[in-house]
Amino acid sequence: MTINVLLYPNFTVLDAFGPVEVLGSLPGREMRYLSPDGGIVRSGQGVPVETEVMETMAPGGVLLIPGGMGSRPLAKDEAFLARLKALAEQADYVLCVCTGSALLARTGLLDGRRATSNKTAFDWVRSCGPDVLWQRQARWVADGKYYTSAGVSAGTDMALGFVRDLFGAEEAETICRRMEYHWNRDADNDIF
User: What distance in Å separates the CA atoms of residue 93 and residue 38, rounded to the nearest whole number?
Assistant: First the structure.
């Protein structure tokens, strides 16, 4: 399975690399890091990541969309949103962390579907997709091929839930133990 991580300037590190730690532990996976223009992309925390242009993504696999302050200008960029929609449509699964769900919501692909996002940015995210069935009290939400999580650390819980859904509880628990991570296994249990 190919894991395609879509990065952009000012993405949040844990939004991307919490799930990457989980998904990168799957046997037979291939990790790819993409961005709108390719080249080095810096997170909001200053971490540089080498990327390929997003259109190099092959059909299938997983598309992971992290959040971060950089999602706000991209949510207004119609050309980027059209490119994102094309990638999301060809992915087998799309996982959004935090305000990454605002970007997917702006494409229209979440319309009529259940989704969640970071509680501190929830009103803004909701404005990006008025036809999305937003779930404020959820750690993560799975609706068809789309998985969305609440803020930052919730992305790791969602990624483990995704592994459990696709590969079974034993695989998810093995990854969790290896990470020495305290997993919130209940998608509806969000204290925020």
Answer: 22
Q: Which CATH number fits domain 2-179: 3.40.50.300, 3.40.50.880, 3.30.450.40, 3.30.70.890?
A: 3.40.50.880
Q: Which residues contact 78 (CB under 8 A, 6 or more apart)?
A: none
Domain layout of the chain by residue ranges: 2-179
The encoded tokens of residue 54 equal 């997003």
Q: Record the tokens describing residue 1, joined without a space.
A: 């399975």
Q: What are phi and psi of 32, to 5 degrees?
A: -130, 140
Residue 143 CB-density burial (10 A; 0-12 exposed, 13-18 middle, 19+ buried): middle
Is 176 annotated in the active site? Answer: no
How far is residue 21's CA from residue 7's CA, in Å, rounded to a whole number? Answer: 16
Out of 96, 98, 128, 176, the active site residue is 98
Residue closest to 185 by CA, chosen among 167, 171, 172, 166: 172
Which among 131, 80, 107 is positioned nearest to 115, based on CA atoms?
131
| pLDDT tens string 5-55 | 999 999 999 999 999 999 999 999 999 999 999 999 999 999 999 999 999
